[in-house]
Amino acid sequence: MFKKILVALKFGSASLFALRKGIELAQTHGAELFIFHALDYALKELDQNDARLLELKTKMQHRFETEVKPQLSHLTKVTFECVPADPALAVCKLARKTETDLIIMGCHQFPEKMCLGRIDYVGMTILEKAPCPVLLVPLCE
Fold first, then answer.
1. CATH number, domain at 61?
2. How confident is the model at residue 109 (pLDDT cuts 50, 70, 90)?
């Protein structure tokens, strides 16, 4: 059913839990998995070869290699991307570009708030502008 799955990754606990669900779905469906992490939007103005930007990209690639890659045991079609960007717009743009079938993102658990209180501005924007279905995964510990 799903051929291409995009996970919006913040490296927080809710996001990492959503990533695990994305990995499970990708394995079940034999889907290609795209993992996207937005770096600070303010860095977008820097030259692509700026030492600060390169250092941050290297750091995020290392986090991917150490925190995420070990979980990808059986997946062969995985792409990780991190660039300075508006997270919501970049996720939606990447979903269109890659013809993604499903976007997955984590949400926070605030039982005292109404359901939409679990979604921040980025999440709401993705829900509004996504070119495909969005799976919102609550953190279940």
1. 3.40.50.620
2. low
